[in-house]
Every structure is written in structure tokens, then in C-alpha cells.
Amino acid sequence: MLHREFAINPDQIQDISDLRLLEARFGFDKGALISTFPKKWFGEVAERISRQASSNQADYISEDLKILKNNALASFSRNFDDSEWFQSAAHSHEEKPFHRIVDNTQPEPPTVIHSIHNLRETDFSITPQIERTAEALAHAAEALLANAEKVTLFDPYFCITKTGYRKTLLAMMALCRKTRVRFHVYAEEDGKPDWDSVIVPALQTLLENIPDNIELNFYHVSDDGSGYVHARGLFTGKGGIIYDRGFEEPNDHDQRQTPTDVQLMNRSTLEQKARDYNETQLSPRLNLKNRWSGVKCSK
Questions:
Q1: Domain count, the chain
Q2: What CA–CA distance (Å, rounded) separates 134 from 244?
Q3: Per-residue pLDDT at 298
Q4: Are residues 147 and 291 in the same domain?
């Protein structure tokens, strides 16, 4: 997973300065996320900070809390066994490791850090390269996919008739936990097989294999030769990732092991891609050529 998951004892956040430190360090665009561990993590922090705020601080504290919740918190569906916080975190860590645990217990570097103020730049390092297997390509975006209700992929070379693209798409769908998730996939029309006789039948066949909670929307677009449809990536309402070599798992097994670069989208890039690939109104730089939508029929 490209994003790092941090377990932070909610007691660590005592005032507005602590809150703003978290805002500066964590976010989907920074590759560092605070696990909602336990589920009431945000409620505990919000109540403590709000209770301490003066009337003059109330408005901007409310805004700071909103920013933290929207930009830096993520649920990883971990079990909290209602024991003492650190013990519960340690048990969860044994099942699936956190990147870091922050609690004022006996430090055990590098995993257990005594305080949020002791976190260093090295604690936030990410791996900018991944293998080109379907599982690795999907896993890189797991933090985005897990709680998304809408997922957008854009890749000019994406061809639904090729096994390597289908495998990655299905692997990504399998990581989505919401009861209904809309996938929007944009590919360039140029160089693709005929839409009606080849692409649509391939999409209909794929539909039989997608998870029940997925709605698939597939588009062919054109940039009229401008080259604007060049970048390849994925985004949700929380953040995005640029995939340097796209989403295809190569047929050649040696090529699958050759690392490809991945890069987190900053906020401005995310906002621009969301405007470009908006199903209700595409960017003026793009022309919609074909569209297909499908939902798996319940048996």
C-alpha cells in the first residue's frame, strides 16, 4: 500500500497545536494516514479539543477538525478489543502491522514512537516504485479504494480486451468495501478495436465477473491529437495516484517484476483531474466518443 497507516492514541492530541501538527504531517496527498482506531477516534479528539476552545477559537477549530477528518483519517476495518489502547493496538499490529504506533508507553523504535512530536521525516517515507502485477498495482491504491464510493481510472492505452488490464481492474474492485461503488474508466479511442463489435461484448463478458457491489462505466474519449490524454492514474474523492506505466499487467513474467514509478497526486492535480474526467461534463480538451454502463445482475 502506497499510503502509510499510523495508529495514534487519541490522548496524544491535547490542544490546537497538536491538531495542526497532524494537519501538516498527514493526508492522502502526503501518503500518511491516521487510522480511525478505535472507530470513535475522531469523536474523542473533537470533543477534547472543542471543550478546551474559547469562544474566539470555536470557528477555526471546527474548520481544522473538518480538514483533518476529510484529508487525513481512514478506516482500515480493524478490530478494537476494548482493552487498554496500546494493548489493543499491539494486538491489531500482530494481525496486520501498522507503519507506526504513537503512544506514551515504552518506546520500541522504529515502530512505537513516544509522541507525535517525536515523529521524523524518515517515518513518513514511501516506496515510489511497485511491481507491475495486477495485485501490486491494485494494492498501491488500497487506502483510496477501501472506502471509496466512486473510483476514476484514466489511461489512454487501457484496452478492456486485454487480460492484463482486466486483471488489474478486477483486483482493484475486490478491494472496495462500500456497498455500492461506481467505477469510471477512461481510455483513448485511437488505436482501439471496434466499439460495437468488440469492446461492448468484452465489457458484457467482464460484467459477469465483477463483484456485486460494483457499477462499471467505461468511456472512449479523444483529445484530437493534442496529447492531453497522456497521463495514467486513479483518483477518488480523497486522493489520487499517478501510475507511470499505466494499469496493464504484462504478459511477460520478467516485465511484471520490473518496478514502475507511482506518485501521489497533490491537491491541485487531484482537483484538475476531477474536472477533466467528470462524467457529467468532460473537460473542453476531451471529446466523448462512446460510453457504456453496466451493473451485475443479481441471480
A1: 2
A2: 15
A3: 59
A4: yes
The residue type at 240: G
What residues make up the domain containing 289?
A: 129-295
How confident is the model at residue 83, as a pLDDT? 76
Q: What is the DSSP letter of 268?
A: H
Q: Which residues of the chain have pLDDT under 70?
A: 298-299
Peptide bond into 128 cis (omega under 30): no
**208 and 285 co-located in one domain:** yes
Looking at the structure, tell me whether residues 110 and 256 fall in a common domain.
Answer: no
Contacts of 9 (CB under 8 A, 6+ apart): 85, 86, 89, 102, 103, 104
Is pTM beyond 0.90 here?
yes
Identify the pLDDT of residue 219: 98
C-alpha cell at 170: 478486477
Burial class (CB in 10 A: 0-12, 13-18, 19+), 224: exposed
E strand map for the chain? 4-8, 32-35, 73-74, 100-102, 112-113, 129-130, 150-154, 181-188, 214-222, 233-235, 240-243, 260-264, 287-295
